[in-house]
């Protein structure tokens, strides 16, 4: 999965000599990256809730915003 994303982004594969290092890094930090990604998503939901409250949006308006974007 990681290599395919690198190929897509950079239009080339990871050099054979470097693959082991990259795969080790990715495996080692995969859990940490997952936690940070989940934390970012939770904080974005908190920000959304604050904004909705500041603008006194109704549940219908919130639903419309969340389904359109």
> Structural class, from secondary structure content?
mainly alpha
What is the general shape? elongated
Tally of alpha and pi helices? 3
Biggest sheet layout: none
- Overall pLDDT level: 85
The N- and C-terminal alpha carbons lie at a distance of 27 Å
| Strand residue percentage | under 5%
Q: Give the H and E element order.
A: HHH
Q: How many strand segments?
A: 0
The helix content is over 70%
What is Rg? 19 Å
Stretches with pLDDT under 50, minimum 5 residues: none
Describe the structure.
This protein has 69 residues and is mainly α. The protein is 84% helix and 0% strand. The chain has 3 helices and no strands. The protein has helices at 2-10, 16-54, 59-68. It is elongated. The model has no long low-confidence stretch (mean pLDDT 85).
């Amino acid at each position: 999965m990681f290599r395919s994303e690198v190929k897509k982004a950079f239009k080339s594969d990871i050099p054979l000599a470097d693959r082991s290092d990259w795969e080790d890094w990715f495996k080692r930090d995969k859990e940490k990256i997952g936690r940070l990604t989940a934390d970012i998503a939770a904080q974005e939901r908190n920000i959304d809730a604050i904004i909705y409250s500041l603008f006194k949006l109704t549940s219908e308006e919130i639903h419309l915003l969340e389904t359109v974007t």
